[in-house]
């Protein structure tokens, strides 16, 4: 993201959006981070390439949260959002298996995630690798799969 929106720099805007979503949807946020997409769920593909896309997504989530019918479904994790270009279901396989970018140790940053996205690769993190919070957010936004080794 570049520039500023409403006088906020992009980092402050991200932090603000994270805070609002965490306050509005704590259960849904936790479910989205852990629960894979399953059949029977309302999966919505959304673009998140620009600040305007992000603002539209936040407005959509807040409107759904206030809706008496959609709100409980959203909080229960039945309504999910997938970044444009991400697989729509667990086990969804592209024509070719994606490349793998393995990180043995150290910090995995936004730059690493962006490089993996540009290469169409998924990230595999060894036990000694640490995924930064901003890198995790970037991976979600770009649809980069992140796998931790056990």
Biggest sheet, in brief? 3 strands, parallel
Radius of gyration: 16 Å
- If you average the pLDDT, what whole number results? 74
Ends: how far apart? 33 Å
**Helix/strand order, N-terminal first:** HHEHHEEHEHE
Structural class: alpha/beta
- Tell me the helix content: 40-55%
- Overall spatial form: globular
Give the amount of beta strand, in percent: 15-25%
Low-confidence stretches: 26-39, 90-96
Q: Give the helix tally.
A: 6
Q: Report strand order across the widest sheet.
A: 3-4-5
Number of domains: 2
Number of strands: 5
Can you put this structure into words, describing what you see?
The chain has helices at 10-24, 26-34, 51-66, 70-76, 110-119, 133-142, and strands at residues 42-46, 79-83, 99-108, 121-131, 146-148. It is of the alpha/beta class. The chain has a three-stranded parallel sheet, covered by helices on one side. α5 links the parallel β3 and β4 (121-131). α1 (10-24) packs parallel to α3 (51-66), α3 crosses α4 and α5 (110-119) runs parallel beside α6 (133-142). The longest helix has 16 residues, at 51-66. It is globular and about 45 Å long. Mean pLDDT is 74; it is low at 26-39 and 90-96.
